[in-house]
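FAQ: What does the model actually see?

It sees only this:
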Amino acid sequence: MPIHVEQTAGQVSIQLSGEIDHHGARSMMGQLEDAIAARMPTQLTLDLSGVTFMDSSGIAVLLRTLRQMEQLGGTLRVVRIPPQSRRVLDAAGVGRLVTLE
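And it is asked to produce this:
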């Protein structure tokens, strides 16, 4: 499950694609952690427009990414969320912790 990273002046945008489930979450977490560590952004935007399915493993991916950004003193926002993924995030109350647009 590849990620696509774009960077401009301290801001990083990462587009996620495919299924964020039990099988793909670990790989995705590793890729996100590596991308963040290599770029040290102050602002990170996760674009979920390419996500075709998300379960509770996706919540874990977002919360772990949030924790990493907080350790850097940065912020996280999640954009272009497909309806199925939005339902999962809303049901878990993730919007109280992460900016969902």
